[in-house]
Specification:
With about 140 residues, the protein is α+β, with helices and mostly antiparallel strands. The chain has one domain. Helices cover about 25% and strands about 35% of the residues. It is built from one helix and eight strands; from the N terminus they run H-E-E-E-E-E-E-E-E. The strands form two sheets. A five-stranded mixed beta sheet has the order 3-4-1-7-8. It has a three-stranded antiparallel beta sheet with strand order 2-5-6, with no helix packed on it.
Length: about 140
C-alpha cells in the first residue's frame, strides 16, 4: 500500500471516531443525569442558555467537592446540583466566532436557589452580567 492510501485510511478512521463520539457522550450524560435525579429528587437544575451568537459552558470550580451531575434534555444541557451544598460554578460564554470568551464565577452565595426548582444561567451582552433566573428554556 502506498503512503497516501494509509494516510487516507487513518484520516477516515479518525473522522469516524469523532463523528460517533458525540452521540455516545450525549447518551451517557443523559443517563447519568436521569440517575442523579432519581437519587436526588430535590436537585436544582441549572440550564445552559442557548445564546443567539454563541454557547454557554459550565465548569465546576476545582475546589468543588459536592455531588453534581450534568444533564441533557433535547437540545438543552446543564448542571444538576444539591441545593444545600455550597458551589462555585465557572460560567463561560463563548461567542459564535470562537474568538471571544467571557468568563465569570457564579457562586452559591450570589443566588438563592430552592430545592427542586429549575433555573437558566445566561449572559446579558448589553449589561455584561451573568444571570440566574427561575424557569425552563424554550424548546
Amino acid at each position: 500500500m502506498s503512503r497516501e492510501v494509509i494516510i487516507i485510511i487513518i484520516l477516515g478512521v479518525f473522522f469516524l471516531v469523532v463523528a460517533l463520539s458525540a452521540p455516545i457522550s450525549r447518551s451517557i450524560t443523559k443517563k447519568k443525569g436521569e440517575k442523579f435525579l432519581e437519587e436526588h429528587q430535590d436537585a436544582v437544575k441549572i440550564y445552559s442558555a442557548i445564546l443567539k451568537r454563541g454557547r454557554m459552558e459550565y465548569r465546576l470550580h476545582k475546589s468543588f467537592k459536592g455531588k453534581y451531575s450534568r444533564f441533557v434534555e433535547g437540545k438543552n444541557k446543564g448542571l444538576l446540583l444539591i441545593p444545600e451544598q455550597p458551589y462555585n460554578i465557572l460560567l463561560q460564554c463563548v461567542y459564535g466566532d470562537g474568538n471571544r470568551t467571557i468568563t465569570a464565577s457564579l457562586r452559591y452565595d450570589d443566588f438563592a436557589v430552592e430545592a427542586g426548582k429549575t433555573y437558566i444561567a445566561s449572559y446579558d451582552i448589553e449589561t455584561k452580567v451573568f444571570t440566574l433566573v427561575e424557569g425552563k428554556p424554550e424548546v
